[in-house]
Amino acid sequence: MARPRTSGSKKARRAEPEERRQAILEAGLSVFAASGFEAAKLDDVADKAGIAKGTIYLYFSDKHDLFEQIVRHAVTPVLGQLQNVVALPDLPTEDLLARIFEVFRTEVLQTDRKLVIRLVLTEGSRFPKIAAFYHREVIAKGLGLIRQVAERAHARGELASDEIKKFPHLVFAPLLLSVIWDGLFSRIEPLDVEGLLAAHRKVLIGSGSRRRTGK
Amino acid sequence: MARPRTSGSKKARRAEPEERRQAILEAGLSVFAASGFEAAKLDDVADKAGIAKGTIYLYFSDKHDLFEQIVRHAVTPVLGQLQNVVALPDLPTEDLLARIFEVFRTEVLQTDRKLVIRLVLTEGSRFPKIAAFYHREVIAKGLGLIRQVAERAHARGELASDEIKKFPHLVFAPLLLSVIWDGLFSRIEPLDVEGLLAAHRKVLIGSGSRRRTGK
Amino acid sequence: MARPRTSGSKKARRAEPEERRQAILEAGLSVFAASGFEAAKLDDVADKAGIAKGTIYLYFSDKHDLFEQIVRHAVTPVLGQLQNVVALPDLPTEDLLARIFEVFRTEVLQTDRKLVIRLVLTEGSRFPKIAAFYHREVIAKGLGLIRQVAERAHARGELASDEIKKFPHLVFAPLLLSVIWDGLFSRIEPLDVEGLLAAHRKVLIGSGSRRRTGK
Amino acid sequence: MARPRTSGSKKARRAEPEERRQAILEAGLSVFAASGFEAAKLDDVADKAGIAKGTIYLYFSDKHDLFEQIVRHAVTPVLGQLQNVVALPDLPTEDLLARIFEVFRTEVLQTDRKLVIRLVLTEGSRFPKIAAFYHREVIAKGLGLIRQVAERAHARGELASDEIKKFPHLVFAPLLLSVIWDGLFSRIEPLDVEGLLAAHRKVLIGSGSRRRTGK
DNA sequence: GATGAATGAGGATTCATTCAT
DNA sequence: AATGAATGAATCCTCATTCAT
Questions:
Q1: Is C192 strand, coil or helix?
Q2: Would you say D66 and D21 are in contact if contact means Cβ atoms under 8 Å apart?
Q3: Nearest to C36 among D38, D177, D200 (CB)
Q4: Per residue in C29-39, is it b (16+ CB within 10 Å) or e — as a string?
Q5: How far is the alpha carbon of C206 from chain D, nearest alpha carbon, in Å?
Q6: Alpha carbon C193 to chain centroid distance?
Q7: DSSP 3-state assignment of B208?
């Protein structure tokens, strides 16, 4: 995605302000995700970002603000990608789902973005603004995307049930479970996410896909 | 009264130790769930339990211990119920799932037990012992239960896919989503959990249950 | 031991709450007076009061509150004394003034009460509530008292000018100056307060007391 | 232009160093007076002076130094004026006092100079050097001036009491009170300073000036 | 056993001061 | 010289934990 570069570049001796902001956001994400909002220490954020404590306050008004910015910052890109995948016209639903799940797996589960989801899950109820923002920008859009897919799939007879149009959540639920499992139980009992999502696809497609996949 | 054990003198004015323990655990659950572990104040727990702050330390060694006991305390009962449901031999899978989901909806989602799940989700990663305990006592058992159901169902041809035997998580995922949605987004966009779970059942059953597609 | 319950009048091991409050107020007065509100450290207050930092917050909600209570605490007693002096019926005005000034000198200037006045002078403009309180409880009453004296004195022809009835401030001004001088310049050039006040009396009485003639 | 001194090149766009110094001193006076030394922020001083924060340190070594310079800067002029007034040989004392008080009222009370007095009052005890400076440059000279007046007046029989020669403070006290009242209580109960000073004059003159007691 | 006053370690935030540009 | 971003020491306040009663 292209963003217009501001500031007449040249060689920047001092870190560009925007770089610093990014560094703080990233450091903050990892610290908040590791400790939760309350237990997170801004000292640790500063250390991790390689700056002094006070510097954080040049970029964010306080701990709350930093938290909100972190969530807002890490949100949009993925949905754009998915939008592109969904826009592919003639992909069979099974393949489409495969691509979507794969994007999720590689672009979310295997990156720091899963930390943002986890942060929203764990802290969202105490940050109504963040919950609302996340619902509006991610959840609603994501479910809309799935609904789109479901409608097209159903029209073609490629889905097990038209219920999914009404409850796209069902498509998303195992993805959510993956994120959570990853954070809580993967060390105790690793989860084969690829397998899980493949199985999920099969269930969703069910007999909708013409071929029978008997075993 | 169950135990005329300790303070048998005069009126049973002083609470039995076990009652106090319970009171603290319940108060703790609601306070921890509302604020998260770090932000929860033992002062509030004490107030809510109707005791003095110091008293907590007569029953629990510290805040961590209280948290762990809270989770341990609120765990077993439901699984027993489900075990009973599953043990019913001749129930069609669709009905069985309906019963299971219903138990979850009424006994978990509509009670404080959902708070425990949320607590494990939000704090579990910082309490490995709790995560392990919960995995062992709830997750593993629950998934085992579902796997049982799936195996039986598949043997009878009542399930869309035998993948579910390998990934019983798929059955559980929407339940998890319900709990999370309830905590984060229900005020923004309420979720029709009954509808969701009904749809989920349909998807799971798929074309598997030919005998009963009437319903 | 340990049977004498809840603070009878017996021997209290632990300091009575009210004693503690007093100790904090006194410590606070000296620290605030020495450093000013902003520069005063609650650590120092705690040290001086012989308690832990946190204890202050059991008695006062925050630094502001402590400051306000300090001023409120040290206010009323003296005015009562002056009221009594003024109530003496037949004292010649000159003697009455002498007694008033003497009370001020010994009960204010030579005690910590002068610190309160100084505190109000130095911080009052940033604490409108305190300024209003002090004006209402001390200034207004004090000026009222002086006006009383002036009216009686004038009726008897014992005052230089009836202007003092309109501006009792004139009687008070040198007292204020004494307090300020004491704080700022006494080490550089000590002020003979007794002499000053004696001279002040003479000026106020002027020829009024000699001739005893109405104008 | 008065001084084509330093940066004579191009347009006089860049402020003369001395102008900057003045600007900082003035800004500092208003900020220090409004907040007190401790609470005053150099950020605010810089903003108000229209310069960058770091620039302050090119002119002053630190916050203390700035404070001292502020007081030193705003001191001398008025006394010169008063000196001139007092030097008028044949003015009756009452008129002389009227002139003096009037200068004080218009040149101090109605200007920022009253801020300096207030600053010395409120912060002086923590800045012994400033207190000493102010005593030497203002107080001592001012009292000396008054003593001069008093001596002359007494020689002419124009004063109520010769005590004033020994305690010229008595003449000054109501002026001090005016400054303080203005800062603390004027919003609660305005003070008629002109009236006060007129009354003060009458008291001071007392029966001394028989010639002019026409009421 | 209970109590709740007292403790003091810990962390968010501010702001005088520095220094690279 | 001037700037203002960066620094980090300093301080208020909170709250888990202790302990005298």
A1: coil
A2: no
A3: D38
A4: bbbbbeebbee
A5: 6
A6: 16
A7: coil
Rounded-to-integer distance, Cα D210 and Cα D175, Å: 25
Packing angle of the helix pair D63-73, D17-39 (nearest 10 deg): 110
Q: Exposed (0-12), middle (13-18) or buried (19+): which is A206, by Cβ within 10 Å?
A: buried
Q: Do B173 and A169 make contact, defined as CB atoms within 8 angstroms? A: no
Which of D146, D165, D172, D180 has the most C C-beta neighbours within 10 Å, making it the best mutation to test the interface with C?
A: D180
C-alpha–C-alpha distance, residues B115 and B29, integer Å:
7
Which residue type is seen at A60?
F
pTM, rounded to two decimals: 0.89
CA dist B191 → A41, A81, A167, B188, B194 (Å)? 35, 27, 9, 10, 9
Q: Which two tokens stand for residue D20?
A: 């900057």
Cβ atoms D17, D6 nearer than 8 A: yes
pLDDT in tens, chain B (215 residues): 444 444 444 444 566 888 899 999 999 999 999 999 999 999 999 999 999 999 999 999 999 999 999 999 988 777 888 888 888 778 899 999 999 999 999 999 999 999 999 999 999 999 999 999 999 999 999 999 999 999 998 888 888 778 899 999 999 999 999 999 999 999 999 999 999 999 999 999 876 544 444 43
Q: Does the beta-carbon distance from B173 to A176 stay under 8 Å?
A: yes
Q: What pLDDT is stored for residue A109 in this prediction?
A: 95
Which residues of chain C are in CATH 1.10.10.60 domains? 1-60
Q: What topology does CATH give the domain D1-60? A: Arc Repressor Mutant, subunit A (1.10.10)
H-type alpha helices, chain C:
17-39, 42-49, 53-59, 63-73, 76-87, 93-104, 113-123, 128-134, 140-155, 163-166, 169-184, 193-205, 208-211
In whole angstroms, what is the distance from residue D152 CA to residue D147 CA? 9
| Range(s) within chain B of domains with CATH label 1.10.357 | 64-213
Q: Which residue is nearest to nucleotide F21 (CA to C1')?
A: C2
- Identity of residue D136: R
Burial class (CB in 10 A: 0-12, 13-18, 19+), C184: buried
Rounded distance between C-alpha atoms, residue D25 and residue C126, angstroms: 22
CATH topology classification for A64-213? Tetracycline Repressor; domain 2 (1.10.357)
Query: Which tokens sit at C206?
Result: 């002027």
Task: Give the total residue count for chain D.
Answer: 215
Task: Spell out the residues 6+ positions from residue A141 whose beta carbon is closer than 8 angstroms to its own.
Answer: A79
Report the amino acid identity of residue D68: E
In this structure, chain A runs to a length of 215
- Distance from C-alpha of A83 to C-alpha of A99, rounded to nearest angstrom: 11
With beta carbons less than 8 A apart as the criterion, state whether A207 and B160 touch. Answer: yes
CB pair distance less than 8 Å for A161 and B126: no
Say if CB B189 and CB A161 are below 8 A apart. Answer: no
Alpha-carbon torsion angle D60, D63, D66, D68, nearest 10: -130
| D1 three-class SS | coil
Q: Give the 3-state secondary structure of residue B167.
A: coil
Distance in Å from F9's C1' to A52's CA comes to: 12
DSSP single-letter state for residue B201:
H
Measured between alpha carbons, how far is A82 from A99 in angstroms, rounded to an integer? 9
